[in-house]
Specification:
Elements lengths: L29 E4 L5 E7 L2 E4 H6 L19 H5 L2 H14 L11 H7 E3 L4 E2 L8 E4 L3 H12 L15 E3 L5 E3 L4 E2 L2 E4 L8 E4 L3 E2 L2 E7 L18 E8 L2 E2 H7 L13 E3 L4 E2 L7 E2 L19 E2 L2 E7 L6 E7 L7 H9 L10 E3 L14 H4 L7 E2 L5 E2 L7 E9 L4 E12 L3
Parallel strand pairs: 6-22, 8-16, 9-26
Antiparallel strand pairs: 1-2, 1-5, 2-3, 3-4, 6-7, 10-11, 12-15, 13-14, 13-22, 14-16, 14-17, 18-19, 20-21, 20-25, 23-24, 25-26
The structure holds calcium ion.
Calcium ion binds next to loops.
Length: 424
């Protein structure tokens, strides 16, 4: 099926601000609560949310094989499980319906009233029931920085790092959408110069600038996903703040890896931008030396040029952008991550989430965590209000944003905003 929803020349009859992340070429998917307290699957053009369940009920998806209640659900899982053919057909139909030259819905005031909402009338929800969450460690700059801090420059990368996308299984119960505040976690940690651990609120709460991709059903137990098929199982991407408590993490992580320092919260942006919508922004991946094993070798451009930034907003203050990075810096791309994940026969299901790992760029202004930006606390970051940060303070908001842009179109992810409340 052609992907004509991406046509850069198309304009919508809905108002779209020139700098909007959500032009008619984006057509992301999310779940929201309407002013009538109905949970529905929806999309967005400009600052208008579109109720897809209402649109379906009114017959606007005629000709596309969809079950009756596919959009009247509180998660996207069933829609995602319907496979790429369906996602593409639905995006194409939405593009058609909202095209400036199409009067079908545009001239029907009654239907418009049932289908369209201002963004400030709705409440975005977690868009998927996340079955399994896996997090990678796929930025060479990030792995090198962290390795240098903890093991010295000569042993920065572990011997496996250049041969496989290192990852671990996370926990999905603490993944939250934007605008849900979190509590500073408590735990065990070892204070510098002491022998035994202490218990208390973490003193080193950090963000991790990541993106995550959401999959559809891909393989059964025992089967593997070949790398040239991997992308067809990726539904779309979100911004992802993988909150971390560095002091808890440092004390607990040997020998089994991340645990309570990581699983207290991860925040995702609520609109899932489809991989289809990101097609115009493919770029080459960083050159991989040594060449990976054959099952991880790929053809074509498998990375995406997505500008990313993180801002910190202290209470009653203007925000300060503390880093600017890009998804294209990832050493291991999504196709390699998904292929590697299933190479042993591990099943990948609809609604699984795979985090990229912290995305650090090559320069100190593009690092993806406070651990790196303030270099273990040695170089505090100055905020616009004059205060300094080495980690995140109570009542700070952390805001991630991301967008792609070329001469014709800007496709964005909106933002994910999370406030850190004091420990209980
Ligand atoms: Ca992470």
């Amino acid at each position: 099926m052609p992907n004509f929803a991406n046509n850069p020349d198309r304009a919508s009859w809905l108002h779209v601000d020139p700098h909007s992340d959500f032009p008619i070429q984006n057509i992301p998917f999310g779940v929201f609560l309407t002013r009538d307290h109905i949970t529905t699957i929806g999309s967005r053009i400009g600052d208008t949310a579109i109720d897809l369940a209402a649109l379906h009920q009114l017959g606007y998806f005629k000709g596309i094989p969809l079950t009756d209640g596919i959009f009247l659900q509180d998660t996207l899982n069933d829609f995602i499980a319907d496979s790429r053919k369906t996602w593409r057909a639905v995006r194409n139909r939405i593009a058609e319906l909202f095209d400036v030259n199409n009067n079908l819905l545009k001239s029907n005031e009654k239907d418009k009233k049932a289908v369209l909402f201002n963004m400030d009338e709705i409440e975005m929800q977690l868009p998927i029931q996340i079955g399994d969450y896996t997090d990678f460690y796929a930025s060479k700059e990030h792995a090198t920085n962290v390795g240098t801090m903890f093991r010295g420059k000569d042993n920065a990368l572990m011997p496996n790092w250049l041969h496989l996308p290192v990852g671990y299984h996370g926990r999905s119960s603490s993944i939250i959408p934007s605008n849900i505040p979190i509590r500073r976690p408590k735990g065990q940690m070892l204070a510098a110069g002491t022998e035994g651990p202490v218990f208390g609120p973490s003193k080193a709460v950090d963000f991790e600038l990541e993106m995550a991709f959401i999959t559809t059903d891909a393989n059964v137990l025992g089967d593997s996903i070949p790398i040239d098929e991997a992308e067809s199982y990726i539904f779309g991407l979100v911004l992802f703040n993988d909150w971390s408590a560095r002091d808890i993490q440092r004390w607990e992580y040997v020998p089994l890896g991340p645990f309570l320092g990581k699983n207290f919260a991860s925040s995702m942006s609520p609109w899932i931008v489809t991989l289809d919508a990101l097609e115009p922004f493919r770029v080459a991946s960083p050159k991989q030396i040594p060449e990976p094993l054959p099952y991880l070798q790929f053809k074509g451009n498998k990375s995406f040029d997505i500008n990313l930034e993180v801002a910190i907003q202290a209470e009653n203050s203007e925000e300060t952008v503390v880093t600017r990075s890009n998804f294209k810096y990832m050493y291991w791309n999504m196709a390699q991550q998904l292929t590697h994940h299933s190479v042993n026969g591990c099943p990948i299901n609809a609604g699984d989430m795979l985090g990229s790992g912290t995305i650090s760029g090559p320069t100190p202004e593009s690092y993806g965590s406070m651990l790196e930006l303030a270099w273990k606390g040695e170089k505090p970051i100055k905020l616009n209000n004059g205060s300094e940060r080495v980690y995140i303070c109570d009542n700070d908001c952390v805001i991630l944003r991301g967008y792609c842009e070329n001469k014709a179109v800007r496709i964005g992810f909106g933002e994910v905003v999370t406030k850190l409340l004091p420990a209980h």
